[in-house]
Design brief:
With about 400 residues, the chain is an all-alpha fold. The protein has two domains: about 270 residues, no CATH class; about 110 residues, Arc Repressor Mutant, subunit A. The protein has a three-stranded antiparallel sheet. It is elongated. The termini are far apart. The mean pLDDT is about 75.
Length: about 400
């Protein structure tokens, strides 16, 4: 094995270890349990609202029940078919609700997205939540976009399988076994999860980062679905213990397992945006970090440009003691910088009117003992030399 391949494997191993460490540090196992419980409460409202959105479009008329069956056959473990019959009954009853009842249903459906946003904000290290109006608009876009995407994908797959050559090729096969529908279900799940990772956190997430997390989560869900079905087939412990009601704990465990996988995909999306944690050497302290990034922003200001967080991260060679997003939030609170567009920043102060001593007093981080930045090292050296000159003066000079 060459040295390059060894370095690459070590880098991949460190990256995977980082994802696992963050998964544990963020308490994703406990958060998945909370999301599973919330999702169980919101499942019927989510299904009702989603298919109410579909029924508003004439092109989707008559496919709601078929789409429900498709979803539960392709995205849920073997227990899904039994659960589907109950959910269809509940959604039919919910469709006869009054306006007030339907509004309550929407709020219940949004509850799971509210919990999910808090969890993803923890993963992405975001401490500021959206305003109520902004949050509602984001949640509503998720509730409307995902079923519409599913509806169009379902129509497209139905059209393809109805073509004469394709229909003859797969004659006698059930929908779940047709390769085209299997691919459609996988792509649809990956896109839905990518959309979830990109839209729900209250921060900018690159599209390809979200897609990477969505693809990983979709692959793991497919593997989990296969493994879960094998377990239920060869180890029917729950049926022996719970009898006829075994479907309830089985379905709850499946939802919990899915949320664990979804949060693992979210950790991958976040890890791709913070690959600086794998940089070797000492970490950049908070004061040096802020001093250096303010310099980047000043240089960009001379060219009339704004700078993104990711651009500044790429300029450095070190990892950070302070999370970049937290540092930028601090600098904004101190009114040293301000945001001009999505994740782009400019200076908010005139540096010709701000002294180094004032900056030192404003920043919450102390001067570093080990100086990693050349400019800061020169500043502190000049300050030490000036101090030595003043300190070397005769004592009488201070009393005259």
């Amino acid at each position: 094995m060459t040295k390059t391949s060894q370095n690459w494997l070590r880098h991949v191993w460190q990256f995977c270890c980082y994802i696992c460490q963050e998964f544990v540090a963020d308490g994703c196992m406990h958060r998945a349990a909370a999301l599973a419980y919330t999702a169980l409460l919101s499942l019927v409202p989510l299904m009702t609202v989603s298919f109410a959105v579909l029924s508003a479009f004439p092109v989707f008329k008559g496919i709601s029940e078929r789409l429900q069956s498709f979803v539960f056959e392709n995205f849920v473990a073997s227990s899904g078919k039994v659960v589907l019959s109950y959910i269809q009954g509940f959604t039919q009853q919910a469709s006869r609700l009054s306006v007030v009842g339907f509004l309550v249903l929407i709020i219940t459906a949004i509850l799971v997205l509210f919990t999910a946003e808090r969890t993803l904000n923890v993963i992405w290290k975001v401490h500021k939540r959206r305003s109520n109006v902004s949050a509602f608009l984001i949640y509503w876009s998720v509730l409307t976009f995902v079923p519409i995407l599913a509806g169009f994908s379902f129509l497209l797959s139905n059209y393809i399988t109805s073509l004469p050559y394709i229909s003859q090729l797969f004659a006698g096969m059930s929908d779940a076994k047709i390769p085209i529908l299997t691919v459609v279900s996988f792509v649809l799940l990956a896109l839905a999860l990518a959309f979830f990772y990109i839209i729900v956190p209250n921060c900018y997430v690159k599209i390809w980062h979200g897609l990477a997390g969505g693809v990983l989560a979709a692959i793991l869900i497919e593997i989990a679905k296969w493994g879960f079905a094998l377990y239920l087939q060869y180890f029917p412990t729950y049926k022996l213990l719970y009898g006829a009601v075994a479907i309830i704990p089985i379905f709850l465990i499946w939802i919990y397992l899915c949320w664990i996988i979804i949060l693992l995909g979210a950790e991958l999306s976040h890890a791709l945006s913070v690959r600086y944690v794998l940089r070797p050497g000492p970490k950049l302290d908070g004061f040096t970090h802020a001093f250096r990034w303010l310099g980047y922003l000043w240089q960009a200001q001379q060219q009339g440009k704004a700078v993104s967080r990711l651009t500044m991260i790429k300029k450095d060679q070190e990892d950070y003691e302070v999370v970049p997003r937290e540092l930028l939030n601090c600098l904004q609170e101190l009114k040293l910088i301000e945001t001009t567009s999505v994740d782009k920043f400019i200076l908010a102060r005139d540096f010709s009117q701000l002294s180094f001593n004032q900056l030192r007093q404003m920043l919450p981080w102390p001067l570093p003992k080990t100086i990693l930045d050349k400019r800061l090292a020169k500043v502190l050296t000049d300050i030490d030399e000036c101090f030595e000159k003043v300190a070397a003066m005769p004592l009488i000079a201070f009393y005259q």
